[in-house]
Design a protein that fits this description.
- The protein is an alpha/beta fold.
- The protein folds into two domains: about 10-260 and about 460-480, Aldehyde Dehydrogenase, Chain A, domain 1 (3-Layer(aba) Sandwich), CATH 3.40.605; about 260-410 and about 415-450, Aldehyde Dehydrogenase, Chain A, domain 2, CATH 3.40.309.
- It contains 13 helices and 20 strands.
- β3 (about 30-35) and β4 form a beta hairpin.
- α2 crosses α6.
- The chain is globular and about 75 Å long.
- Keywords: Oxidoreductase.
- It comes from Amphritea opalescens.
Length: about 475
């Protein structure tokens, strides 16, 4: 399957450092594979510690003049970048589909979602306010906010466009520079964004992209280099914990969007059709490879059987296939290893007594395709209750009371997103306040946008991305005391 683009110059295979496309010092390259076919899409330059150090130095130099610009001028560059992304949506979606696997309609949706952060923070960057604090003495207390400094970012493969703009947009709007390491599975989307940023007039050094097959070399320099003042990471909880430890020696600011174990709690009084629709969207979008996707469906016993029947009927209508095929609803998972991890979880649950309603095994389409799966007869003593599945597998648990549902939802170290379906207003408040999650969707699972504060609690992370709160992680608060004003 050959990648055909309207603008072939968007397919970049070198690192982007200080406004230049460069090879790694050692000349190493690594392959990017199409998960639908296993074919090599491109060979990408692989950088290491030395190149990362140079990118950090370039970022630090570039931001000295960038942060001094009026916010409106920074905004104009972000607006131009946004416009170029929209103009090139078809090519960006094609690049994403061939390296990540999701159907092209989902890829286009992600490109629009990613672009929305540039639009949002182009405006929010003009609204970085300070304060003058009241004082009874001969002085004035002034609070201003300044860019935190050079930002290092490490992004995942499941949303290879939007997870970049969600970090780069607020960082740049605040006056920072950013050094990015994209996931090794999906560097092409990041490099295409760099090309469009360059075309938009973003000054050299402000946005650097470091593809690498040696993650520890790049990450080690990012976490140890004192010029980097903040690290932002989206990925697994174990890796996030390691990065936080590594950042401790230089006391960097960190923001972490880590693992999830999202419950969808469906009560007897819920609109059943609405709950089924919401659970389908949440669980199977991006073939279940979403940190906020439904990981546990908790259904009250009075509607359990009816829910499973409707849910299964809808899942059986899905069509697995290649992302560019018009009738495909769901594509492959990102790699053969990911498929193996998913199948291990499913087979373990079956051995522990789970019943397969549909799916339950790899598809014959290819090494990265897994059948959309529903499991019943599961309970909270099984391993699958506490595991983040990250695949198209929906275990449906049964509960009796509201108190039991809240306890089951909270019985996890994670706390990213949760969803509640009920028509009872009192229950909406009790459950929303009682469950320990950073985000709660009530009768809705499509909760993410550029205007909301995205983030979790407990071991799902720290900090928020998007919304008016999204700039806070990229700003330092400075207090200035002005005395002797009566002289």
């Amino acid at each position: 399957m050959k990648l055909e683009l309207n603008d072939s110059s968007l397919l970049k295979t070198k690192a982007f450092i200080n406004g230049q496309w460069v090879e790694g010092d050692a000349g190493d390259r690594f392959p990017v594979l199409n998960p639908a076919t296993g074919a090599v899409v491109a060979e990408i330059a692989s950088v290491g510690q030395a190149e990362t150090a140079r990118a950090i130095a370039a970022a630090d130099a570039a931001m000295q003049s960038w942060k001094a610009l009026p916010a409106g001028q920074r905004s104009e560059v972000l607006e131009r970048w946004h416009g170029l992304i929209i103009d090139n949506i078809d090519d960006l979606a094609a690049i994403m589909t061939i390296e990540q696997g999701k159907p092209v309609f989902e890829s286009k949706g992600e490109v629009l979602y990613g672009a929305s952060y540039l639009k949002w923070f182009a405006e929010e960057g003009k609204r970085i306010y300070g304060d003058i604090l009241p004082s009874a003495s001969d002085r004035r207390s002034i609070v201003i906010k300044q860019p935190v400094g050079v930002v290092a970012a490490i992004t995942p493969w499941n949303f290879p466009n939007a997870m970049i703009t969600r970090k780069a947009a607020p960082a740049l709007a605040a006056g920072c520079a950013i050094v990015l390491k994209p996931a090794g599975e999906t560097p092409l989307s990041a490099l295409a964004l760099a090309e469009l940023a360059d075309r938009a007039g973003l000054p050299a050094g402000l946005f650097n992209v470091l593809p690498s097959a040696r993650s520890s070399s790049v990450g080690g320099e990012m976490t140890s280099n004192p010029t980097v003042k903040k690290l932002t990471f989206t990925g697994s909880t174990p890796v996030g914990k390691l990065l936080m430890k590594q950042c401790a020696d230089t006391v960097k600011r960190t923001s972490m969007e880590l693992g999830g174990n999202a419950p969808v709690i469906i009560f007897d009084d819920a609109d059943l059709d609405l709950a089924v629709k919401g659970a389908l969207i949440s669980k199977y979008r991006n073939s279940g490879q979403t940190c906020i996707c439904a990981n546990r469906l908790l259904v009250q016993e009075g509607i359990y059987d009816a829910f499973v029947e409707k849910f299964a009927a809808a899942v059986k209508e899905f069509r697995l296939g290649f992302g560019f095929d018009a009738d495909t609803t769901h594509g492959p998972v990102v790699s053969a290893k990911a498929l193996g991890d998913i199948d291990t979880i499913v087979q373990s649950a079956i051995k522990q007594g789970a019943n397969v309603v549909t799916g339950g095994k790899p598809s014959t389409l290819g090494n990265c395709f897994y059948e959309p799966t529903i499991l019943t007869d599961v309970n909270d003593s099984m391993d699958i209750f506490s595991q983040e599945i990250f695949g198209p597998v929906a275990p449906v648990f049964k509960f009796s009371t509201e108190e039991q549902a809240i306890a089951m939802a909270n019985d996890t170290e994670f706390g990213l997103a949760a969803y509640v379906f009920t028509e009872n207003v009192g229950r909406i408040w009790r459950v929303s306040e009682g469950i320990e999650y950073g985000m709660v969707g009530v009768n809705e699972t499509a909760i993410s946008s550029e205007v909301i504060p995205f983030g979790g609690v407990k071991e799902s992370g720290q900090g928020r991305e998007g919304s008016k709160y999204g700039l806070d992680d990229y700003l330092e608060t400075k207090y200035i005391c002005m005395g002797g004003l009566q002289r």
